[in-house]
Amino acid sequence: MATIENETFTYCNALASVTFGSGVSSIGTNVFYGCPNLTTITVDGANTTFDSRDNCNAVIATASNTLVLGCQGTTIPSTVTAIGDKAFENCEGLTSITIPTSVTSIGRYAFHACEALASITFDAGSKLTTIGDYAFLFCSGLTSVTIPDGVTFIGSVAFAYTKLASITLPASVTTIGSNAFNCSTLNTATIGAASQTKYDYPFNDYDENLVINVPAGSLDEYAAGYSNHATQLQATWTGKNITSGDFAGYWSTYYNNGCAVQVDENTRIYYISAVGSNTATLTENTTDKVITQGQAVLLKSTAADVTMSYSSAASACSYTSNQLQGVDAATTISESDYSGNSIYTLANADGLGFYKYTGTTLGANKAFLPLSTASVKGFTFTFEVPTSLTPVPSPKGEGSSYYDLNGRRVSQPKKGLYIVNGKKVMAL
Which of 75-84, 244-253, 341-350, 406-415 ranks highest by mean pLDDT? Predict the structure, then answer.
């Protein structure tokens, strides 16, 4: 027999072992579909088209090193470079599979409807680049998977109707097909790439609890591409820890020219409204937690990581006279780009402030201060006192009682907002 036709042994429940003779040169699809007890597959050693090298319990196309048929007893040899279309489709007894480093592609429907499949392991140094359409569709036993670095393409419906609770996609993944992760159990998706080659809505459109983490500089990119999920997008931005003094906390700068961004409740937003001979005045956005599109700001947080989300509306704060500017992408920056002005960036040198930048490339989504005062080493911060508040000196001895904004009495108030004699004041 030279040809094994499509679905030849479909639903042969008792079939446990198959041997392909030396003359078999063509094998159709779904040959062993619905054969739950098949554990052994061998190919006659004289066959020049197919082999079952290393006692792998599978059929491998010799010339291409493609595994074309597998079963629950299969061990994929380290010489296999591809898993063919429908190779393990509906393999009911398959509970785990290890994909060796050599495999570069997983075909369409390769593990479709392997409902007992609970573990997928990719060997270290995986060369995998492609996971085909429907590859793990209806693998309902699958609760987790680690996509290896180097994968660039995940096809449509590839992991749909699995039981994944979370998925992390490395920065190499730049194409995710439609409904690739349409899983009702999915709570968190993390996308490492700054952008996608196309946006095909890979997630469940009706899952309002899903959080999609993207790079902090790409909130606008993904909000446009995944407009159905814009309100579910989040990003993390990490600050530098300042451990003492009035500026204790995690500080960073941020800029996004693509969209407005909202920060978490642990974070305060400042901008530089004026610059003196050696000081820069910080004005806080006390109106809301939104950074308007195109506004460069300073962020101070009580936590190392600031959680950001896409905002469809600009801040109610006008950011009047903001002196800061920013870059969206990592940018080679020089004084000649800004009319000869010196470039100052956030640093903690002689106190937290903006100091003359001596590097060449400013990181993506960072803010800077361009000034014509080239002789000044840096500018430390002072805080603007809001016009609606009364400035008072911090008490050194007895006097009026100070209360914080939660109504708690403060014996030694530091710089900040307090209630004194029923009025809101700023302690200096």
Answer: 75-84
CA distances from 266 to 216, 251, 311 (A): 17, 12, 17
Residue with token string 């993904």: 222
Q: Are 273 and 381 in contact (CB under 8 A)?
A: no
Residue 398 confidence (pLDDT): 45
Read off the pLDDT band of 389 (50, 70, 90).
Answer: very low
Extract the runs of DSSP E, i.e. beta strands, from 182-248: 188-191, 198-199, 211-213, 233-238, 240-242
CB 221 within 8 A of CB 194: yes
Do residues 8 and 35 touch, judged by C-beta distance below 8 A?
no
Which residue, 280, 312, 278, 279, is CA-closest to 296?
Answer: 280
Question: 3-class DSSP state for residue 278?
Answer: coil
| The length of the chain, given as a count of residues | 428
Which DSSP symbol is given to 283? E
The pTM score is: 0.82
Distance CA 402, CA 188 (A): 44
CA distance 384 to 50: 78
What are all long-range contacts of 73-78, with beta carbons under 8 Å and residues at least 24 apart?
Answer: 73/38, 73/39, 73/40, 73/41, 74/41, 76/100, 76/103, 77/53, 78/102
- How far is C-alpha 166 from the geometric centre of its chain's CA atoms? 11
Question: Could you identify the residue written with the tokens 């004084």?
Answer: 335
Tokens coding 213? 């983490």
Task: Give per-residue pLDDT as tens, 42-95.
Answer: 999 999 999 999 999 999 999 999 999 999 999 999 999 999 999 999 998 999
| CB atoms inside a 10 Å sphere around CB 406 | 6
The per-residue pLDDT for range 106-149, each reduced to its tens digit, is: 999 999 999 999 999 999 999 999 999 999 999 999 999 999 99
The span from the CA of 197 to the CA of 192, in Å, is: 14
State the DSSP code for 286.
-
Q: For residues 38 and 42, what is the distance between their CA atoms, to the nearest angstrom? A: 12
Q: What is the pLDDT of residues 278-311, one digit of tens each?
A: 888 889 999 999 999 999 999 999 999 999 999 9
- Judge contact between 92 and 69, C-beta under 8 A: no
